[in-house]
Amino acid sequence: METKKFELTFAKIYPDFTSKLVQVRDDLSPQEIKVCMCIKMSFSNTQTQEYLKISKSTLANLRSSVRKKLGLERSKSLTNAILCI
């Protein structure tokens, strides 16, 4: 999916998500925000990797970084945390 098209579609479906996410953590990188957007859109890890054109290990690192910044314990679901925003 083309980046601009995805971002426009996302903004129509979840108009407040990105601003709420940045209110929670204003130190997320643009790439980390895109990972969160993909999680919110229920993308699989494979779909996220393909969309962002990143490797499996890069996605794992980005997800880990987001978890740390959100203060999530390993037992807590990143997906559930993102879906609640």
Question: Can you describe this structure?
Answer:
This protein is mainly alpha-helical. The protein has a single domain, classed as Winged helix-like DNA-binding domain superfamily/Winged helix DNA-binding domain (Arc Repressor Mutant, subunit A, Orthogonal Bundle), CATH 1.10.10.10. Helix content is 69%, strand content 0%. The chain has helices at residues 3-13, 17-24, 30-40, 45-52, 56-70, 78-83. The chain is globular and about 35 Å long. The model has no long low-confidence stretch (mean pLDDT 94).
- List the helices and strands in order: HHHHHH
CATH topology: Arc Repressor Mutant, subunit A
Structural class by helix and strand composition = mainly alpha
In helices, the fraction of residues equals 55-70%
CATH class: Mainly Alpha
Question: In total, how many domains does the architecture comprise?
Answer: 1
Topology, number of strands: 0
**How many whole angstroms does the radius of gyration measure?**
12 Å
How much β-strand is present in the residues? Answer: under 5%
- Total helices: the number is 6
Largest sheet: number of strands, sense, barrel closure: none
Which CATH architecture is right?
A: Orthogonal Bundle
Please, what is the CATH homologous superfamily? Winged helix-like DNA-binding domain superfamily/Winged helix DNA-binding domain
Query: Runs with pLDDT <50, length 5+?
Result: none
| Terminal CA distance | 24 Å
On the 0-100 scale, what is the average pLDDT?
A: 94
**Which overall shape is indicated by the principal axes computed on the Cα atoms?**
globular
